[in-house]
Each structure stands twice: as structure tokens, then as C-alpha cells.
Amino acid sequence: MMMIFHIMLKAIKLTLRDKGFFLYMMIFPLALILVLGSVLQNAFSSDVELDKITVEYTIQKDNPLGKAFDSFATEASGKQVTFKKADSAKSGKEAVENGDAVGYVGVKDNLTVTTNSPSQIEMSVLDGYLSGFTSQYRLASTIIKVDPAQANVLQSPPQASDSAIQAEELASGNDISAFEYYAIAMIAMVMMFGINSGINVFREEKVRHTDVRLFIAPIKKSTAIIGNFLGAIFMQTVSLILLMVISDLFFGVNWGEYSLVIFVIYFSLLFLSVALGMAVDVFSNGNPAANGAATIMIQVFAFLGGAYFPTGDGLMSKLSPIGWVRVGVKDVLYNHDLVAATFPIVVNLLITGILVVGMSLWIRRKEVY
Prior knowledge:
This protein is mostly helical.
């Protein structure tokens, strides 16, 4: 146990001597959060201003439906939606074609609606009002069949007003600020930088020619692997804590009561990335090209995982450790779904275990590394 501690301490000292470590683990991600969050904050805004909507209509037949709709249109007109009686069906349709109205409703024995490619929001509003009227009319017609004395309900529909429509906004992972999104994604990407630390664990030994002494020492090779593994993780754990604190203070990411669960999710990714880096170095027999391959691998994972631009929560994100960690953290933090933490933690630790066992068998088979 003491030998593992000494090897871990040695790895920490080597990391502290690397100035590039602080650049990539602290300055780089914070700068990206600030820049991307500032530039793309409007892309994450859910505030939508709805222009005033005009709907023209004509009553083409004197019947209960026409009277009911005329009364409904009068009462339903408000600040956002105005029902305007057209002079004729032709003028109503021309108003739609010219963009002066979102839709035209012709009322005979039924409703005929004419639109000209309205936006999704405008169409939803129009559908909502017309669906509300038809539901109300069917109900009134049923009442009359049961009690003919209530015929006046068709001429006096309940009043509709803008205040009758209430929007309740729930806190969810689909409605977060750009700073929050990129803070979550960048911390995941920084944990993925552990690949480089893992690659350099044994490479530093070779550069300083201490690898031979390490492996001829009276210790198990697994002890050397575990000690270097823990040493590479220690400083990145410190970076993880600092990044979470800074993102809370300056970028509005309130980790709150789920901070420990989220820390474990990120920590499991750190385990995976360091193990992956060590495995790349070991299985490539210390090939100098491994660092370049690791950098490309990180960027591919970052692209697929939505570190630079949102990729959603679908298949693309599930192809990247950064993606499945980002989605898990988002669901835990904003949807309060603790079960969402299970997938990234289990998968990360499972892959880590497989890599560590594989490295041990590989080094033991080669006798020397």
C-alpha cells in the first residue's frame, strides 16, 4: 500500500511540473465557456415574441353555427388574436395571400379554414382557438338536445380572454442558458483530457529512464500501474472541483443538492479517460504518435458529444463519453432524475475495469514494458 502511495506521489510531482496541464485543464475550458456562452446565448433563449394575429372570417349562411361563431369571434378577440369579419370570402382569402391575416374562416354548415404557410406558433394558436370553438359548440349542441330551453348557449358562448391562457415553464434540460450548457459540456471535455495524462504516465518514466528501475523493483507490475493511475487522477480531480466551483460562482450552474452525484458522474469519466490514455500508450508500445491520436480522439468525442454545439440527447450523444456524461448531468441537475446517473457511471467504470485488466495482462505477457 505504501508503495502505491509513493508511486502516486511521484506521478503528482511530474504533473505539477507540466505547465501545459494548467493551460488545458483550467484556462482553456473557462475561456471556451465564456466565449461560446456569450456568442451563442441567443440560440438558447426560449423567449419568443408573438406578433398580433389577425383571423378574417365570413358568415356565409344564417344558421346556429354561424351565429355561434360570430359571437365567439367577438368575445375571443383580444390583445394577441383579432377575429375580423371580412366583406366577402374573396377579400378574406386575399388578406391571407397578402399576409394581412394568418387565416380565413368561412362558416357555412361547417368551418372552412384557409391559411398561407403560417409559422408553427401561429398555426398552433389558430388551431387552439378553432378547436376550442368546435368543442364548445358540440357541447352546446348536446345540451340543447337534452334541454331545448337552453338554446341561448349557442348565442352566448363563454367569454375568452388573453388572461385565460396561462403558460407554466418548467425547469428542464431543454431550457438552460448557453453558459450553463457549455459549463456542463466543457467540464466533461476537460475530464476527457485525462487521456493525455494517461499516455504520459509511462512516457515520463521512459523519458527520464526510470521505467527500468520501476519494473525491476521488487513490486508487482499491477502496483506500478495502480500507483501511476491514481497519481494521474489526483490533479485532475482538483481541477474538476475548481471548475465546478467556478461554474457555480460565475456561470450560474447551481449544482445544489445533486452536486455529489454529478461529481461522481464526472469522476467516473475521469477514470475512463486516464485508463484509456494508459491503454493507448501500452498497446501502442509507447509509439510517439499516440499523443496525436489521442488529441484527434478527444475532438471526435467532443464533436459527437455536443461540447462545441448542441447535438441533442439522441444517438449521436450516446456515441461519445462526453455526450452520455453531459446528458446524464443535465437530467440529474434540471430534471431531478437520479436514475439518469446510473448509465454514465456504470458504463464508464465498466470500460475502465476492462482497460486496466487488459493492460495488466499485456504487460505481464511482455515481461517488460
